[in-house]
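Progress against Task 2.4 (sequence-to-structure conversion) is shown through the following example record, which the project officer requested during the mid-term review.
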Amino acid sequence: MNTSHPRESASPLAPRLQHSEDGVGLIEIVVALLLLAALATALVPVLLNGLKQASSSATLATASQLANDELERARSWKRCSDLSPGTYNVTDARAVQLTLSTTVGSCSPSPENPASVAVTVVVTRLDTNVVITSTKTYIFIAEL
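Structure tokens generated for the chain above:
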């Protein structure tokens, strides 16, 4: 009766072939690491671009909120004496400095002719002087 293992052979090469198939060789590990490095290198620009876009979107959201808040403040004006143009700097949560500028059109209502006054709010980034958002509204002024 033959009790030899099916992988065993009478050939002298059989043990060497079986031994070379055990585990993962150094070359396979190096190739896998090179592929992983190439993949990581290809993904780095995509990740950096995503971070830059997220930061830009957050700055835009902050600037839009600041402009909206300023317009809401302007909508509370009822008389020409309430109109207050101005410029001031704001720093957002990520330490980006923004400049908020409010300009007001001329106001000359009369009791028989109320006026609409243009109010423009512009938010710019202080370090680059790039306008992030700009918005304009008209406020109804009925009182002198």
